[in-house]
Design goal:
Oligomer: single chain
Strand order of the largest sheet: 3-14-6-17
Structural class: alpha/beta
Strand content: 5-15%
Distance between the termini: 41 Å
Radius of gyration: 26 Å
Number of strands: 18
Helix content: 40-55%
Length: 535
C-alpha cells in the first residue's frame, strides 16, 4: 500500500495523518478499556452495545436476525435494566472470517463483541494488537462467567499470557464412535470384535460370506478422507509418548492435532494399505470428501463397519432410519474396536472451548461487553436462551428439558437462532456432563436414544487431549492449510499404493510434507518446548 502512495507527496501526508489519528484513537480507547470505563447504567447516559450475530438466512416469517424473540429477550432483560441499547450486527455464517476481517479493518464499524471459531484468526488479531485485554474486566465484572468457564477453558483465550478472548464452553468433548452391522454378526455367528485384529477377521468374513447379500457389492469397512472415518483408526496405532514427543512432534493444523510425526503413524497407514489392497475398504474413498457416498453406502445396506461423528447416523430420517427402511431387520451396534498399544480405545477429543469471543481494541464498550457475557452466565438466562419457555418449548424429565412435540409455530420460532445467540456455550449446559449428554440423546427419535447414549459414552472414552503450548506456533498458521492437503494426499497415496511400493511412496510423501512446512513447525515447537522447560 505504501508503494502506491509514493505517487505524490500529498498522498503520503494523508496516509501519515490517518495513521497518527488511528494511533491516537487506539491509544485513547486502550486507556479507556484498561481503566474499565463506565457502563451506561453507571454514567446515567444510555449507550449502544454492538454484538456480532451469525446470519444463516433461516429467519422464520415475522422475524429477522436482528429482531426476534431472543434479541428482544436480551434487550428487555439485559439492555433496558442497564441503560443499554443492544444492537446486533449480522455476519453471514458462510463468510464468517472474511466478513469479520472487513469489520475489524473498518475500525469504527466493528461490533463491540465479535467472535470466530478459527484459531488462526484469533491469533492474528491478538498478535497485531487489535484486541482488548479482558483479564481485569473479567476479574472486576464477571465472577459468574469466570466460574462457569473455569481456568481450563479460559486458557484457550490466552495469547502469550494475555486474556484476549473469552472462549465459549463446549457441553461435551467426545467426537467419534464406530458402528457395526449387528445383524450381519448374528447371521454369521460372530462376536462383536473388541480389538483391531478381531475387527480384521470380521471384515474378511463380511467380504467372503456377504451376509447382507449385496451381490458382491459389500464394503466391509467404509472409509472417506474426512477426519471422522480415519482418525479413530490412525490414532489407535500411535505408541505411548513422552511429554517431549507430545509437545514437539504433534502438528496442529487448523483446529486438530495431526499425528504425522508420531511413532506408530507409518504402521497405521500400512494397515490401511493392507485393508485397501485386500478389498476390505471402500475403493473410492479418496473421492468422498463430503461423506455423501458413505451415507449412501451405509443407507443402502452395503457397509459392515464404519466410524463417524458419534451421533450423526441417528438423526430423524437420517442414515440409520434410511438403512432400516431399505433393509428391514438391519441393526447397528455402537462399538469400540481400535485398541492401542496401551490397551485403550484412544481417540481425539474436541478442544473444550468453542468459539473465541473478543472485544476489539477500538471498542469503547468493553465493560458493557463483559457485563453482557456475565449476564448470560447468571441466573437462568443461558438456560432460557437455549430451551425457551417451559410448557411451550419443553418439559422437564429427570432434570432434563425435553423438547415438546407439536409445538406451536410461535414456540418453534423462539429458538431458531438459539445456538448463535447463546454464545458462551457450544451445546446445552445443564450443570454436568452426564446431564448434558442425556439431554443431547433425548433430542433424537425415541427409538434411537439408547444407541445414541452408548455412542456418546464410547466417544468420551479414553480421550486424547489436545496439546496446548505456551504460545501460538507461527509456522502452523503459515503452513497449516497447505499441510492439511499434504496430509490427505499422503493418506490417499500410501493407502492405494501396491504393498511392495508402500515404503517408497511413504518416504516420498513424508519428505514433501516436511519440506512444505512440516520441518518448520517441528523446529518452532521444539524451540517453544525448550522455552517452557527453562521457565
Amino acid at each position: 500500500m505504501l508503494g502506491n502512495t509514493k505517487r505524490n507527496g500529498m498522498a503520503m501526508v494523508s496516509v501519515i495523518l490517518a495513521v497518527l489519528l488511528l494511533f491516537t484513537a487506539c491509544s485513547s480507547n486502550s486507556n479507556s478499556n484498561e481503566s474499565g470505563g463506565s457502563s451506561g447504567s453507571e454514567s446515567g447516559q444510555r449507550v449502544t452495545l454492538k454484538i456480532e450475530v451469525f446470519d444463516r438466512g433461516n429467519s422464520p416469517a415475522g422475524s429477522t436476525i436482528t429482531d426476534n424473540y431472543l434479541t428482544r429477550y436480551v434487550q428487555e432483560n439485559f439492555g433496558d435494566p442497564n441503560n443499554i441499547d443492544v444492537e446486533f450486527v449480522p455476519v453471514p455464517r458462510s463468510e464468517e472470517v472474511e466478513k469479520l476481517n472487513v469489520l475489524m479493518a473498518s475500525g469504527s464499524d466493528v461490533p463491540d463483541i465479535v467472535f470466530t471459531y478459527d484459531t488462526n484468526t484469533f491469533n492474528r488479531y491478538a498478535s497485531q494488537g487489535g484486541l482488548t485485554d479482558l483479564a481485569p474486566l473479567l476479574e472486576e465484572h464477571a465472577p459468574n462467567l469466570t466460574a462457569f468457564l473455569g481456568e481450563d477453558i479460559l486458557q484457550y483465550g490466552l495469547y502469550e499470557g494475555t486474556q484476549y478472548a473469552v472462549p465459549a464452553k463446549r457441553s461435551q468433548v467426545g467426537k467419534y464412535a464406530s458402528f457395526i452391522r449387528q445383524d450381519w454378526l448374528d447371521k454369521l455367528g460372530l462376536d462383536v470384535p473388541k480389538t483391531t485384529e478381531e475387527l480384521y477377521e470380521v471384515l474378511k468374513a463380511f467380504k467372503e460370506k456377504d451376509p447382507g447379500e449385496t451381490g458382491g457389492q459389500v464394503i466391509p469397512l467404509a472409509m472417506t478422507v474426512a477426519n471422522a472415518q480415519y482418525e479413530p483408526l490412525i490414532w489407535s496405532f500411535i505408541e505411548p509418548l513422552t511429554e517431549e514427543q507430545s509437545y514437539t512432534l504433534t502438528q496442529t493444523l487448523g483446529s486438530n492435532d495431526y499425528p504425522t510425526l508420531l511413532p506408530g503413524f507409518k504402521e497405521a497407514l500400512q494397515f490401511m494399505n493392507k485393508l485397501y489392497n485386500e478389498g476390505l475398504m471402500s475403493r473410492d474413498f479418496a473421492l468422498d470428501t463430503d461423506k455423501k457416498k458413505l451415507g449412501e453406502d451405509v443407507s443402502s445396506g452395503k457397509v459392515g463397519f464404519f466410524s463417524e461423528d458419534d451421533v450423526n447416523p441417528f438423526y430423524e430420517n437420517g442414515m440409520y432410519a434410511t438403512l432400516q427402511k431399505n433393509v428391514p431387520g438391519a441393526t447397528l451396534a455402537a462399538v469400540d474396536v481400535y485398541l492401542n498399544p496401551e490397551g485403550k480405545y484412544a481417540k481425539p477429543m474436541y478442544n473444550p472451548n468453542g468459539m473465541y469471543i473478543m472485544v476489539p481494541k477500538s471498542s469503547n464498550r468493553a465493560v458493557e461487553a463483559i457485563k453482557y457475557l456475565e449476564w448470560m452466565a447468571t441466573d437462568d438466562h443461558l438456560f432460557h436462551m437455549q430451551n425457551g419457555v417451559e410448557g411451550e418449548n419443553y418439559t422437564m424429565v429427570d432434570d432434563v428439558p425435553v423438547a415438546m412435540e407439536n409445538q406451536t409455530e410461535e414456540a418453534l420460532n423462539r429458538l431458531y437462532n438459539s445456538g448463535d445467540m447463546a454464545i458462551i456455550s457450544n451445546g446445552k449446559q445443564l450443570g454436568s456432563e452426564e446431564l448434558n449428554l442425556r439431554a443431547r440423546a433425548m433430542q433424537f427419535p425415541k427409538e434411537y436414544q439408547d444407541i445414541v447414549a452408548i455412542a456418546q459414552e464410547l466417544a468420551n472414552t479414553d480421550l486424547i487431549e489436545p496439546v496446548v503450548l505456551s504460545r501460538p506456533i507461527e509456522a502452523q498458521t503459515k503452513y497449516g492449510t497447505t499441510l492439511q492437503e499434504k496430509f490427505k494426499e499422503m493418506l490417499v497415496k500410501t493407502t492405494m499404493a501396491k504393498p511392495d511400493q508402500f515404503d517408497n511412496v511413504y518416504e516420498t510423501m513424508m519428505k514433501d510434507y516436511m519440506a512444505s512446512g512440516g520441518q518448520a513447525i517441528l523446529d518452532e515447537r521444539t524451540a517453544v518446548y525448550q522455552e517452557m522447560q527453562s521457565k
